[in-house]
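quick one before i forget lol
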Amino acid sequence: MRKDCRGFSLVELLLVVIFITILATMVIPAYSGLIQRNRADAELSELTRALHYARLEAIDRGTSLRIAPATSGAAWNTELKAVTVADTATTLRVVPAMTSGATLNAGSITAIDFNNFGGLAAPSSALTLTYTLGTVTRTLTICLNGRIVQGGSC
């Protein structure tokens, strides 16, 4: 072989490929967990915004507002709508369904009502919603005074 030909040997190339493979096997699981946590945070923030909207609109309009699944009896991870309790035919806001496949457990609660003072009218006690996406679990608590707390309690 000529001395002016330079390049990488097969051993050097194999070592680089092995090194990259080891790094990839460590990074990919952490990255997918990060994506799952970010998706959970985004979906829970959307739900929190919808609940804040319903509460503030109840105060502004001076009437009770309800947020519930758009289809009666549907799960809470489906499309939600905000309506006035007096006129449930007129939808004020629609919250899109959670597309990540997450579950949102609200127990046997079918609707959340805020009174004209922004307090929780129905159910009659503080409510805790549990959001689960794979290994990620988050809680959202709605206090009797209408305060909405992520990851805490009243």
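fyi The longest helix spans residues 10-61.
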